[in-house]
Every structure is written in structure tokens, then in C-alpha cells.
């Protein structure tokens, strides 16, 4: 049995809005939207990976708040764990630095206006329920 590799996704929330990031790479994912994040390195805590990935991908200083219940399969051996997160006071505004070419803050009523990556849809549904948004 292959050991699972955890990928952390950030549900970055600010004033009730969720940050979505549009992929620019790899080609098969380009143009679709996701929760930013990345792989947890060996020996790294998921919360620390989330902070590191958000710094690398978006140039921000964020803090994890809580894990969203559930895990979602990605292509084997990866599984997605999602954490809510917020910008730390004094953090720069998010900007697409790596693997993304656009960012959008989505209010709960607009969560479904972007074409999410298939593997992120169940996590976004869970977030929508938490934000009091309509399901899809």
C-alpha cells in the first residue's frame, strides 16, 4: 500500500470572502480555480506547510485557523486536507507568484462563479455550508 501524501489547501477568508486562485500550470489544470496550497514535506506539520505554501505562492503571511472536517482524494497517492486561514496583521495583499495567474476574492453568493478544479469542489461545498452560501 502506498503511503498517502497530504496536500494542504487554504480556505483563506477575509471579511467573509474566500480567496480563489486560478492555475497557470500544469497545462491540464490551467484556467481552473483552486484553494491555494501544496504538499506537506516529510517531517512538516500540515499547519506549517500551509503557512509556507501561502508565503511561496501568494507572498502573504497567513495563520491557519482550523481544519475543515473531511479529506478529499486527489490523484494517488495524494489527499487534500483543507484549513481555514486568515491574513496576519501587516501581511502583504495576496498576489499570484507561483503556479497561478489570477486571484479572486469571492463572497458567499459568488462562490460558484469560477470553474473550480474537480477535486476542490467537495471542499468548496463544505466551505459554502460554513459560510451560509448556497450549495451546488
UniProtKB/TrEMBL annotation:
<keyword id="KW-0515">Mutator protein</keyword>
<dbReference type="Pfam" id="PF00293">
    <property type="entry name" value="NUDIX"/>
</dbReference>
<dbReference type="InterPro" id="IPR000086">
    <property type="entry name" value="NUDIX_hydrolase_dom"/>
</dbReference>
<protein>
    <recommendedName>
        <fullName>8-oxo-dGTP diphosphatase</fullName>
        <ecNumber>3.6.1.55</ecNumber>
    </recommendedName>
</protein>
<dbReference type="GO" id="GO:0008413">
    <property type="term" value="F:8-oxo-7,8-dihydroguanosine triphosphate pyrophosphatase activity"/>
</dbReference>
<dbReference type="InterPro" id="IPR047127">
    <property type="entry name" value="MutT-like"/>
</dbReference>
<dbReference type="InterPro" id="IPR015797">
    <property type="entry name" value="NUDIX_hydrolase-like_dom_sf"/>
</dbReference>
<keyword id="KW-0479">Metal-binding</keyword>
<dbReference type="GO" id="GO:0035539">
    <property type="term" value="F:8-oxo-7,8-dihydrodeoxyguanosine triphosphate pyrophosphatase activity"/>
</dbReference>
<dbReference type="GO" id="GO:0006260">
    <property type="term" value="P:DNA replication"/>
</dbReference>
<keyword id="KW-0227">DNA damage</keyword>
<keyword id="KW-0460">Magnesium</keyword>
<dbReference type="InterPro" id="IPR020084">
    <property type="entry name" value="NUDIX_hydrolase_CS"/>
</dbReference>
<keyword id="KW-0234">DNA repair</keyword>
<keyword id="KW-0235">DNA replication</keyword>
<dbReference type="GO" id="GO:0006281">
    <property type="term" value="P:DNA repair"/>
</dbReference>
<dbReference type="InterPro" id="IPR020476">
    <property type="entry name" value="Nudix_hydrolase"/>
</dbReference>
<dbReference type="GO" id="GO:0046872">
    <property type="term" value="F:metal ion binding"/>
</dbReference>
<keyword id="KW-0378">Hydrolase</keyword>
<dbReference type="GO" id="GO:0044716">
    <property type="term" value="F:8-oxo-GDP phosphatase activity"/>
</dbReference>
<comment type="similarity">
    <text>Belongs to the Nudix hydrolase family.</text>
</comment>
<dbReference type="GO" id="GO:0044715">
    <property type="term" value="F:8-oxo-dGDP phosphatase activity"/>
</dbReference>
<feature type="domain" description="Nudix hydrolase">
    <location>
        <begin position="3"/>
        <end position="131"/>
    </location>
</feature>
